[in-house]
Amino acid sequence: MNVIISKTKEELGHKAALNGSKLINEAIKKNGKANIIVATGASQFEMLSELIKIDIDWSKVTGFHLDEYIGLPITHPASFRKYLKERFVDKININQFFYVNGDSEPTQECDRLANIINQHPIDVAFVGIGENSHLAFNDPPADFETTEPYLVVELDEDCKKQQMGEGWFKTIDDVPQKAISMSIKQIMKSKNIICTVPDSRKAWAVQNAVEGNVTNQIPASILQNHKNSWLYLDEGSAANLA
Questions:
Q1: What are phi and psi of 68, to 5 degrees?
Q2: Cα–Cα distance between 177 and 104 in angstroms, integer?
Q3: Residue 96: in which H helix or E strand, if any?
Q4: CA nearest 62: which of 39, 34, 43?
Q5: Could you say which of 3.40.50.1360, 1.20.1070.10, 3.30.70.260, 3.40.50.720 is the CATH number of the domain covering 10-206?
Q6: Prediction pTM value
Q7: What ranges do the domains of the chain cover?
Q8: Are 214 and 222 in contact (CB under 8 A)?
Q9: pLDDT in tens, 154-207
């Protein structure tokens, strides 16, 4: 795992987007197309706003959605489909984008997405790390073993507190109990992983993911095992690193 520390979250987002765009363009040059994974949440604001400005032939790119709440309509302010549509998909001419539909029957939706992503080897995954060190919605203890590309997961208390704290929900009781999440093994199959993690509230998670042992109690620690992963931090999120 390569760790890059910037002074501000804006600089972090710019650097992450530059590297990500370079990797996407390299895949297009080599294969005539590229497949990517896109995350959501406050950690991705700056990176996504920079990425859409960079010269990429999006008509040759297929995108996959990382995770989504179960039972939350796309009209809800916290909907990740709404987030990606407004901040990313509608701003580019992407070839295809496969959303996670949290309104569908969850098991069938996991199967649908699995069938599609199995035909699209991922070139670049854009992800973040949660305050509890979750990767996607794989809260601790995360399932490191399942080979299923998408899972139905239950959100833990720390995860729900983060979603409320970021302003997506008014109370913790408003946060859905379950979500559909891309699995750890599916994320790790990506050829390249761009992980952007700003803010001091993530400092504990970053420290344990970078300096601790690889364990499913710290899901993001698995990134230590990926040779082409980059962790983009600002001074706040990097504060606890030795």
A1: -160, 145
A2: 16
A3: strand 96-98
A4: 34
A5: 3.40.50.1360
A6: 0.95
A7: 10-206
A8: yes
A9: 998 888 888 888 888 888 998 889 999 999 999 999 999 999 999 999 999 999
